[in-house]
Specification:
372 residues, conserved putative lor/sdh protein from methanococcus maripaludis s2 fold, Elongation Factor Tu (Ef-tu), domain 3, 6-stranded antiparallel β-barrel, 3 helices, 23 strands
């Protein structure tokens, strides 16, 4: 009986200790109330009220006033205007003897591009024209002798002279086109080798597209945009271009030159032609990211981190006199790092909280921690 009583007493003591410990822990977690401190000799004088409420550590940056651009991101490829491509060919069947350039190479006026030789069939045609001319001239000489002997009349000379003129034109035409010997094809102007349609040793028919040369100042960037953004675009809008495979490179400025009114059946995008202002820094067929500036204005700007969602709207905190001040704001244009702030309460240079603002309430004591 005595042992059972001792067990009950021990359990009671343990429960009491636990309750006391929990009460002490809870009491220590509570904020200290305001305390009155009396200053001056004899305990009299001015009474100072000390506020022991928690102080939040925050980081602030000043509001700035500057230009903000709303952009539309699109992707595309570097191309050439078809109307500016120079096509090189020959007007007779030939054999490609040498190819002196490669695709994408920059050439100057007069640079050697290709060397061709007339094919055996072409050489035969040239030899026939030469023989026909010689035969016509020989016939003319014999006819002159017959006329001197009064065996023929001058009227008989008419068809012979016509035959000579036709043979001379045919022979001269073939000779001017380079049929008589090896032909060198040289660039007529500076540009980029865009296409080579000939291979070494290949026999190609007359008029075959052997090579295409494009002018460097006729490079165009074709961007694809969603059809829902079509009405936001205008000719002449500024575009910042950057190669996708070289994200660290500097942007190249351009302007919208043409806006097509057709949705591509494959990509389901609308094509926009952008004329870069510095073509030499773009590579043909390279993939490009373009940021089209659809709207731009000067405004009061705040970092995106400073803006908080607030009952369907937005708010931010500034610091005044060591306390947080809440401001309801409207948002205008946005970028990836900044937002336009519309508020009559705020001005340039006001310190806005960018770190620690999610823990703040209006009027809460704050201290700026420069280590944040």
């Amino acid at each position: 009986m005595t042992q059972r009583i001792l067990v009950k007493v021990a359990i009671g003591i343990a429960v009491t200790v636990v309750i006391v410990s929990l009460s002490l822990y809870w009491w220590r977690r509570q904020p200290e109330p305001l305390t009155a401190v009396t200053a001056g000799p004899g305990g009299t004088g001015q009474t100072i009220i000390e506020d022991s409420s928690p102080v939040a550590k925050v980081k602030t940056v000043p509001l700035s006033y500057g230009r903000i651009n709303e952009t539309l991101t699109a992707h595309g490829i570097v191309e050439l205007l078809p109307s500016t491509i120079e096509i090189y060919n020959v007007t007779f069947e030939c054999i490609i003897t040498r190819v002196m350039v490669t695709g994408g190479q920059v050439v100057s006026p007069g640079d050697l591009l290709l060397i061709v030789n007339p094919s055996p069939d072409t050489q035969l045609i040239f030899k026939q024209a030469q023989d026909e001319l010689e035969s016509a001239r020989l016939e003319e000489g014999l006819l002159n002798d017959r006329i001197k002997l009064q065996l023929s009349t001058k009227q008989d000379m008419v068809p012979v002279q016509l035959r000579i003129r036709l043979a001379e034109k045919k022979f001269s035409s073939l000779k001017e086109r380079g049929v008589a010997s090896m032909k060198e094809i040289r660039s007529a102007s500076a540009g980029i080798v865009y296409f080579i349609g000939a291979q070494l040793g290949q026999t190609v028919p007359a008029g075959t597209n052997l090579l295409q040369l494009a002018h460097e100042d006729q490079i165009i960037v074709r961007l694809g945009i969603e059809s829902e953004d079509f009405n936001r675009l205008e000719k002449g809008q500024l575009v910042r271009l950057k190669p996708i495979l070289a994200p660290g490179s500097k942007s190249i400025e351009g302007a919208i030159q043409t806006i097509t009114r057709r949705v591509d059946p494959i990509t389901r995008l609308v094509s926009v032609m952008v004329k870069p202002m510095s073509e030499g820094k773009l590579l043909l067929n390279d993939y490009i990211e373009g940021k089209i500036i659809v709207s731009s204005r000067n405004a009061l700007l705040a970092p995106r981190e400073a803006i908080l969602p607030d009952s369907g709207g937005h708010s931010l905190f500034t610091v005044r006199g060591g306390h947080a001040v809440r401001h309801l704001v409207e948002i205008g244009l946005e970028t990836s790092g900044e937002m336009e702030i519309i508020s009559k309460e705020l001005k340039e240079g006001d310190p806005v909280v960018v770190l620690g603002n999610y823990e703040l309430s209006d009027g809460m004591p704050v201290v700026e921690d420069r280590k944040l």
